[in-house]
Amino acid sequence: MAWEMHIHDLICDSASLANLCSRLSSAPFITVDTEFMRENSYWPELCLIQIADTNEAAAIDPMAPDLDMTPLLELLTNNEDVLKVFHAGGQDIEIVYNLTGKTPHPLFDTQVAAMALGQGEQIGYSNLVDSYLGIPVDKGARFTDWSRRPLDKRQIEYAIGDVTHLAQIFPKMLDHLRVTGRGNWLDEEMERIANPANYRNDPEEAWKRVRIQGRKADVLGRLKALGRWRELEAQSKDLPRGRIVKDETLADLAGTPPRHQADLAKVRGLSPTWAGNDIGARLMAALASATPLPHDEMPKRDDRKPGAGKDGALVADLLKLLLKIRSRDIDVAAKLLARTEDLEALAGGQREGLAMLEGWRFDQFGRDALALVEGQLAFAVKNGKLKMTRADDS
Q1: Which end of the chain has less neighbouring CB within 10 Å, N or C?
Q2: Which of 44, 141, 148 is nearest to 99 (CA)?
Q3: Helix (H) or strand (E) holding 379
Q4: DSSP label at 12?
Q5: 58-63 contact pairs (CB < 8 A, 24+)
Q6: pLDDT tens for each residue of 58-76
């Protein structure tokens, strides 16, 4: 059957957008993509939104003067009857969250679904299109500066292609999931992706982004204060965090704090002008306000790492081998079954709070992983192929 879809001209006025959203509100699913720029800003600059169902597709210009985006944002965040389909949609979802404080729901991510269908851990969009539709994706416009106007016909066609292809792929992928019985595997993952907490840029949590050696409460307290200061500076100036202060400089300041603002001129990674300007004064005020990190906020020790000595590390290695075997046997991405840090935690004796020991993951992998750790499972080579055997079967 030939695929027929009406492609709209670029939508730049509120009435056309409202009419489009009214029609799409009765669709069982819509596919969504965005084009944005963020290389030189803290907040991603939304430049284009593409949306489609099986009948029509459009690109929407959020930079158009006086465009009322309310109907679209309502469709994405408040209409529970329409499934929103993305591919690797983390940054698209973040943009919607920044605009509304909500995330699209319910949602479906085809990159995550591909993991359950044995198509790798991070299959790219063009590879997905080739796999399901057997057509090449025009990559000629992928380096477009989407903030520049006007956009030409080729750019708009390129952008809309992302959602029209996805509208064809999603039903095929859904059928594949039904045949394999793996659709329910994804419910938990999709809810995790839709959790608004994933997209909050909380200044109080910003310090956790910075790698730092040691666990001294006073150092971590200063890092928390500096992380909050940098996050607020970046937000207010709409600049990337690294353009304010790089992570390594922030860690150095927390570990060896300057006594006076004039000392900032000697800090590698800072401009000498900070020794006397306002941003330098705000940095020093942040340091002055710092208190030792409370015990209940201290990062956990390496208790999720393999148990003491070489044996613990070897057990973790065996679990990783088991994961490779099981992911191969059931043709699913290993990352969807278990994370490396959870394997190391299991090897170290942890049994609570591990996703692999719950639900479908326990049935597909966790039960055997637990058996391996408890000495009830072994490896064997049969007909040149590595397999698992129960200890009582040998």
Answers
A1: N
A2: 44
A3: strand 377-382
A4: -
A5: 58/7, 58/8, 58/10, 58/11, 58/20, 58/160, 59/8, 59/10, 59/11, 59/156, 59/159, 59/160, 60/10, 60/11, 60/17, 60/20, 61/10, 61/11, 61/12, 61/151, 63/147, 63/149
A6: 999 999 999 999 999 999 9
